Amino acid sequence: MAKLPAVLLAACAALLALAAPLLAGDPDMLQDLCVADYKSLEGRKSLRLNGFPCKRPENVTSNDFFSDVLSLPGNTGNPVGSAVTAVNVEKLPGLNTQGVSMSRVDYAPWGVNPPHTHPRATEIIFVLDGCLDVAFVTTAGKLFARTVCKGEVFVLPRGLVHYQKNNGGAPAAAISAFNSQLPGTQSLAVSLFGASPPVPTDVLARALQIDGGMVEAIKSKFPPMN
User: pTM (2 decimals)?
Assistant: First the structure.
């Protein structure tokens, strides 16, 4: 009987070791690098991978790990007054299997990055300029919100609905980092009102407790997603 605690401890350690990869944003990498080979998927619509195939090592260059797209502000001249510029594995091949990505978010005065989720990653946001009202909502319906200003950071837990709003009369900007090479972004409004095929109007009317005419009016503002 004296050996039982040791056996249980060993079993628990084994279970934790097996579960560890499941807790990460992306699966663990199996080599030093695996630069995404976009061309290998061209014309092969039947091939589906969790990520991208690797370039042959002799074809990898330093440029596969470089991007300057975050150096310039995005165009915030849109109805919500914000622009997200992403650097993920679809834009930067060197990120493949590395489990990280970044985005730059620019805000017009009083602009909003509307409520959305990242189903595959936790986000940490660093404010470059201005002050933002940042918040997320738990599955229990509790709102965690505060003002985050230049040089400050805020964590947005994986999969939870969150948003940011520029609370000033001048442009603002932030950098977001993710623990996934492709965190995914699901906008609540676009998903509900711009889905293709569309979410039935009567379902939305009942769920939101508004009439069907109002649902149709909102849908008209969101072109169907491709």
Answer: 0.83
